[in-house]
Every structure is written in structure tokens, then in C-alpha cells.
User: What shape does this take?
Amino acid sequence: MKQEIDQSKPLILLYKTPLGFYFYETNKNEIVSVNEQLYKYIDAVMKDNKREVQQTKDVINVMQ
Assistant: This one.
């Protein structure tokens, strides 16, 4: 059976360490450092968690 890839989402791998939050961008072969709020937002988007996406957007908007 052939697996379908969701083309609407980027091909990235999120991970965190005791020193920070990161994602691996597969198309560019780069590791990108992000803050905790952006990490949570990307995680929610990747999981299709619409409620968490909106809550995280609100937090990011307040911080700006």
C-alpha cells in the first residue's frame, strides 16, 4: 500500500533539548533554532490541533 504525503505541511522534524527548541528542515538540510512559542505553534499545526494553534497564535500576538 502506498502512503500518501500531506503536501500542505512542510517536511520538518521537531525536537527539543535541555538547551533549546529546534526543527530540522528536510528540503534545505538545515537545523533551525526557534523559541518555545514558535515550537508549540509548529507542533500544533503538524498535529492538526486547531484549538492549540489558535491559543499559541494568541500568545505570539501578545508577545509582539
Q: What stands out?
A: The chain has one domain: 12-63. Residues 12-63 form one domain. The two ends are 46 Å apart (CA to CA).
